[in-house]
Amino acid sequence: MSLEGTRNCGCGYGNNTEVSMMTSNMNNGCGCDTERTVDCDLKEEMLQQIRSYDFAINELALYLDTHPEDEKALCLHRKYCKQARDLKDKYQKVYGPLTINYPCNKWRWLEEPWPWERGNY
Amino acid sequence: MGKGELLMWTYNKTLQYPINIKCTDPKLAKVIISQYGGPDGELAASLRYLSQRFGMPDQKAKAILNDIGTEELAHLEMVGTIVHQLTEGASIEEIENAGLGAYYTDHGVDVYPQSAAGMPFTAAYIACKGDPIANLQEDLAADK
Question: Best of B9, B10, B13 to disrupt the A interface by mutation (most A CBs within 10 Å)?
């Protein structure tokens, strides 16, 4: 496999992706004006997926701290960061913010129970 | 700055790993609390790494201390959640039978950083010697 092949993990970094990322960041509809019905199974499934991405990102980051030249790990890190960000955007629009830097017209930070109260657990 | 790109430490409103304990067990909580604020608990681990990073000369080791010290804070929250859920809804009698009567007197339903023996958390649990090799030895011992 060529080096180019190893690099192609589908992380979407390349020619025109900066533009598409900008566009997705402009779409700031937080969903707080729309009627919400909570699908608990879907919520839990999405959250589990987010946690899985975050865990993988974190472990890859620790590995990259001591192996910064590893192209494959770097590529996987980029891929998971993008996927995690897209999924978090979707999740937060429906189920409320996961961090306080998620913009919203209504302060939904208070609505969901906290992790120790089995909210977003 | 796009969404999700942070300028500093920012809280994520989810646990690193989900915790949903259904059975109250204050006796277990009394032991597990050491992993919260005991000598080799998560608070000590976090402060150990985050304090040692300032004097670390090596680029890779600086990053590792920073990033592991940060992850330990997520572990701290998980252990605190375990203690909270294990004691949640316990009767005064159950609290007393578990040997947590004295704890309850001082701390109520809070999760206080202390060892299993009831010693309050102290920075004496960690070593920052201004010598990277000595510090890494301390880290090895603490993570054993």
Answer: B13
| B124 secondary structure, DSSP code | G
Interface predicted TM-score (ipTM)? 0.88
Report the CATH number that the domain containing residue B64 is assigned in CATH: 1.20.1260.10
Give the global pTM.
0.84
- In angstroms, the CA A17 to CA A31 distance is 25
Beta strands in B92-143 (DSSP E): none
Asked if residue B1 is part of any domain, the answer here is: no
Alpha-carbon distances, residue A68 vs A65, B1, B107 (angstroms): 6, 24, 45
Domain range for B48 is 26-143
Helix residue ranges, H only, chain B: 26-32, 34-37, 42-52, 59-87, 92-97, 101-107, 132-143
Q: Is residue B68 part of a domain?
A: yes
3-state SS assignment for residue B120? strand
Distance from CA of A88 to the nearest CA of B (A): 8
Q: What is the pLDDT of residues B109-136, one digit of tens each?
A: 999 999 999 999 999 999 999 999 999 9
Q: On the CB side of B105, how many CA atoms lie within 13 Å of its CA?
A: 6
Domain count, chain B: 1
Question: Which residues of chain A have a pLDDT value below 50?
Answer: 1-28
> In chain B, which residue's Cα lies nearest the Cα of A110?
B13
* Residues 6 or more apart in contact with residue B129 via CB below 8 angstroms: B135, B138
Residues B2-32 pLDDT 10s: 554 556 888 999 999 999 999 999 999 999 9
